[in-house]
Amino acid sequence: MTGFFLLHDNPPQQTEAWRQLAEHGRRMAGLCMKEEFAQDPGRAQRFSLGLEQLFVDFSKNLITDETLSLLLRLAQQRGLSERIEVLFSGHEVNTTERRPALHTLLRVPESQGEVSPSPDSGLARNANPCLHKQGSSLAGDELPDIIRQTQHERERMFEFARALRAGEVAGAAGKPLSRVVNIGIGGSDLGPRLLVEALSDGQQDGADIDFVANIDPADIERALARAEPETTLFIVASKSFTTTETLVNARRAWAWLHDNGCTHPGRHFLAVSGNAAAVARFGIAKDRYFRIEDWTGGRYSIWSCIGISAALSIGAERYRQFLAGAHALDRHFATAKFAENIPVLLGLISIWHNNFLDIGTHAIIPYDQGLERLPAYLSQLVMESNGKSVNAAGDKVGIRTTPVLWGGVGSQVQHAVFQYLYQGTRLASIDFLLPLSSRHNQAQHQLLVANCLAQGEALMRGNPDAAEPHRRFDGNRPSTTILYQRLDPYTLGMLLALYEHKTFVEAALWGINPFDQWGVELGKTLAGQIATGLSGAAPAGSHDSSTEQLLDRYSLAQMK
Ligand code: F6P
């Protein structure tokens, strides 16, 4: 079976639950959260869920019991349980690229566990969500084989990380490689960068890692200025190995090694890619090539060898914990009843905000310096996955798909963008993320906790009775607070998988394919044409008058 998103190919607006939610939304216009809390002492507890070290309080959203039950009805009428089942079982869910999306396989631990699925989940009893094959578009025993192959590749990656961290990997001059520069962009940059920043906490116990993503030459030159040619390893991370930014920066690194007297630049390179032929043409040897499969989307690739720079930084053991945290979340997603299923509920509440309350942006505000990169990482995950205007059948969706995802780290954002969140005329929904402990100064951490909790409360309560109008604000602004014990690899794995599944839930209910990204192609094509024209290799193409004018200005500037 292909095109599982077409299983229920009627637009979501045609379901009874959607119509009921629209009606409910109109009635909910007068809902006052502050009063709901005052009248209902059980609200916070009822609208919260825990899973291992995560605790998610979604009670400060514009919801009632009726809202949730209608949203759960929508999930059922949109066949969410079947869609989850086909995701895990290897169907060709990415219909336009004709492949499955099997990133969850990458976090299956070496020792498999059994799970007992929930009645809602649609999974057969005692099936492992990552091994379930019923109706799969992959043949019989293919999934276990695929798991074995990816685990083998992962072991190669861990062995390389061990050897490099032990000083056993030498460059062309015989000196151990100790500085690493990861060259990649999008999913080949954001994931590993997030992991290194979140888990090394500025005190890398492994290799010294730098990241280069931008085609702006300033980015690679900054990294080269900090590097020693004899001790630097360049990781070229690119699933396609055709991405211009990455290849241009990688070639610059090669030339830099050569210009600095390196006789075998290839010994300072490693590649992670799905394109073995292009890697070989570039000059990187087979034993320095780590494969990723075509069913691993770029924004889902942190679970593959694309994470090698993070493995070099944090080591195999902690990397395994990261994968294990994500796997725990996978099991929860595949097996928990929808009413107790955190990614399902967060996805449904997001649809409620977006489609029925017209809340068009969602802010991710971690009160955790280690998660400073999380908003950027999740922006790619969410906006590249669900920034779509047609459904999986190619028809206009006719409803709003993903809200804009943005954010920043607390408490800095309080002094920058929170004015908008409190008194701006457009509502945003917010996720606060907060660790319950810090390995640094506890007294100072307490102030961080106070700041985070205060924002959620203030946004909900407001200040409607203030005497002066400019001090007044109504409150009633929605937020969810995610608590976790501390930012460790396991928790980070859980958090990232939670957001992946939440994104999937939204796509499934809207009926869109979250695994392709065709929108970015035209920009790449035009950039190629303009670059060829600018280099004089071909006559300048014809552009609109604005673009022509900007190009003329560029050409003039070169003559000065
Ligand atoms: O252009 C978008 C995109 O394809 C992303 O989906 C991807 O993460 C990024 O470019 C980098 O792609 P690659 O890993 O193939 O270089």
Q: What is the overall shape?
A: globular
- Largest β sheet strand count, sense and barrel closure: 6 strands, mixed
Secondary structure tally, helices:
19
Secondary structure tally: strands: 11
Instruction: Tell me the strand order in the biggest sheet.
Output: 1-2-11-10-8-9
How much is the radius of gyration in Å?
Answer: 25 Å
Tell me, rounded to a whole number, the average pLDDT: 92
Please report which band the strand proportion falls in: under 5%, 5-15%, 15-25%, 25-35%, 35-45% or over 45%: 5-15%
Helical amount: 40-55%
**What is the helix/strand order?**
HHHEEHHHEHEHEHEHEHHHEHEHEHEHHH
Distance between the termini: 61 Å
> Poorly predicted ranges (pLDDT <50, ≥5 residues)?
113-119, 121-136
> Which ions, cofactors or small ligands are bound in this entry?
6-O-phosphono-beta-D-fructofuranose
- Helix-strand makeup class: alpha/beta
List keywords for this structure.
alpha/beta, 6-stranded mixed β-sheet, 5-stranded parallel β-sheet, binds 6-O-phosphono-beta-D-fructofuranose
